Amino acid sequence: MKNSLKTSYVRLRQPRLEGEEYLAVVDEFMEAVHARWPKAIVQFEDFQMKWAFETLQRYRSRFCMFNDDVQGTAGVALAGLLGAVRAQGRPLADFTKQKIVVVGAGSAGIGVLNMAKHAMLRMPGTHKIGELGEGHNQFWVLDKDGLITKSRKDLDPAVARFARGYGPEEVEDLHEGASLVEVVKKVKPHVLLGLSGVGGIFNEEVLKAMKESDSPCPAIFAMSNPTTKAECTPEDVFKHVGENAVFASGSPFSNVTLSNGRKGYANQANNMYLFPGIGLGALLSGARHISDGMLHAAAECLASYITDDAIRKGILFPSISSIRHITARVGAAVARAAVDEDLAEGCPDLDPRDLRSMSESDTVDYVARKMWYPVYSPLVNDK
């Protein structure tokens, strides 16, 4: 006879804390964790947008922490976006010329935009005077009220820097609140990126409009999950956009058999490609905090993992069976970035100077060896 288990949940029947009261509770938690485990890495998950960015900015320079929704999703999406440039047969430097329509202006969407923007600013040659300054905007962002422009009232500061304005980069006759179909038809983007949480929003009309993209290999990223929230399916994309399209999603889908017998790949852009390696690299390097440079190193490492041959087939992300090797590679990239930025304090069996002197392959080997075993006790009294 099988045992029947019931799970009960205790709920506090009170309004949620807001403002300083809310932050005081999180402050207390972070300070307690740091006092008990000073080398612990805290991963924030599923925070509302208003708190996701607030807590990230509040703690990131004081503790070793990151927000997976904002930074993990952004890193995986950036790796996919860089892969899409390669799939289009263009050099990575052309990422600065990609036209990207983003549907969803929550914490994940804005996190992706921030990381993509920073990646563009890091591209070779963009440091030159007049090239790709902060005013450069290759993004068209929509929320439930349509296209976001500078005429929108009460814009969140995190969103405002990506609002469309006026000038030579603007598309004629695109107004505040324009619909997704209208934006896609007029912008003809290289990439359509969904982080909306609205299942099926990339409908037949939208996808047929993407067929007129300025790219020979339009990229469609349906990043929302679970599967019911995905903006579209790979079958929809290869049917309505064309068999030369590139597809990625946040939820798992099966590959599609195309008319010529080839596979249409349903790439899953899963955060698990990055967050274990980010934590591992920060831990093994003894990083004081997790910087944008460390996160970019993680994303670029994942993007470079895929071979040119795989990219030509439409594969943007590696097989899940490779996850341990990927984690070692990402962890090594994060650790080396921490050393390069003088953020690494080392750990008992490795000084930062030793880590700096290692070759890239030696660093990967070191991280792989340490993956399953603690390098030290995190307790404050243990040496």
Overview of the structural elements:
It is a single chain. This protein is α/β, with parallel strands linked by helices and 383 residues long. It has a domain at 94-270: NAD(P)-binding Rossmann-like Domain (Rossmann fold), CATH 3.40.50.720. 41% of the residues lie in helices and 9% in strands. The chain contains 14 helices and eleven strands. The chain has helices at 19-36, 49-59, 68-87, 107-122, 157-160, 180-187, 204-210, 234-240, 275-285, 292-305, 308-313, 323-340, 352-357, 360-370; strands at residues 42-44, 65-67, 100-103, 139-143, 146-147, 191-194, 219-222, 246-249, 256-257, 263-264, 266-268. The chain has a seven-stranded mixed beta sheet, sandwiched between helices. Helix 3 packs across helix 10, helix 9 crosses helix 12 and helix 12 crosses helix 14. It is globular. The N and C termini lie far apart (51 Å). The model has no long low-confidence stretch (mean pLDDT 89).
